[in-house]
Amino acid sequence: MNEASDVLGIVLAGGEGKRLMPLTADRAKPAVPFGGVHRLIDFVLSNLVHGGVRRICVLTQYKSHSLDRHISTTWRLSSLTGEYVTPVPAQQRLGPRWFQGSADAIHQSLNLVYDECPEYIAVFGADNIYRMDPRQMIEAHVSSGAGVTVAGIRVRREEATAFGVIQTTDGTKIDAFLEKPEDPPGLPDAPEQAYVSMGNYVFGAQVLVDALKADAENTASHHDMGRDIIPMLVAKGDAAVYDFDQNVVPGETDRDHGYWRDVGTIDNYYEAHCDLISTHPIFNLYNRRWPILAHPGQRAAAKFVEGGTANQSIVSNGCIISGAQVVESVLSPDVFIENGAVVQGSVLLDGVRVGAGAVVRRAILDKNVVVPPGAHIGVDLTRDRQHYHVSPAGIVVLGKGERAI
User: Fold this and answer.
1) 3-class DSSP state for residue 303?
2) Closest by CA position to 59, among listed 125, 6, 3
3) Residue boundaries of the structural domains of the chain
4) For the domain 296-398, what is the CATH code?
5) Does the structure show a pLDDT above 90 at 324?
6) What b/e string do you get for 9-25 counting C-beta neighbours within 10 Å, with b at 16 or more?
7) pTM recorded for the entire structure
């Protein structure tokens, strides 16, 4: 199989991301910054491009301006060889309506499939943190002869209740696809574990087209890939599972092999950042053989002056730490922290300003947030709840451009 000519990548990036508010108040979920210089969508696009899938359509809808701009300015492949990553907004091709679900988004964009005539279609989600070589999944799909292959990750059964769960008796064929079951089925070789769907699928192109057309005619459907299309093909006995644990990525460590994180909530987003900063990180951003690609912009290197320090932290270009202490934190570009300030266990996005003597603990500060001199965030959660968004785990979040009290 020649992946470059036979596979079309479709990335579903139209999610609203309500559970990530206020980070998604002004941007689509896949455009949320992550890990200093990245956006969430950079992870799936890096995986696809490294894996040889280089005709990629990104379906967007909700507050997509910053996402569209990021894709257009960052993800420029070689037009000489027919490679591209292109944002595709909702176009109302089938009537005056927006996308009604992930399956409807692809159905309304089938012109992309007809134009390219691929043999296979890789439909991947846009907002998870992981590394994966899609070639290995595509090869497993071709070998299985199934109409669709679903990537599954092993988790403890008690954790699987929040996801779509794959039931299989032989470890290959999907017998049932269960949406957030109270009692998830165990695996044949590991009864205490369950397969959770990663939201990544490989289809035979004609199988997907036929399924989408049938789904469009079903008035009872939610027109969703996981809730409708996959169960339809499972019922036909035409669905297989791919064990993500079998995927081997060049340069990975034993510690970050098989890492996958759903960052659908503020607490998950925060915890995923914590996974980056240890000496031997749970997820290693510094794998040079499979880098997560990004464009950090034209900024000077980070600067530490007046005794400013950063420990167990990621500090991006353009940051200035002036006589301040940064501990166990992730700083995006152009963050400025003034004398005597303390930033601990926090995520600061582009352009944040922390004034002299301020204290920021266990917080997420969105782009261009200003913390005045002497202000305290994350020190008194009772007070913080009166002014800011505070997650169930006690993470204080200030929205884009907000000025702290």
Assistant:
1) strand
2) 125
3) 3-267, 296-398
4) 2.160.10.10
5) yes
6) bbbbbbbebebbebbbe
7) 0.94
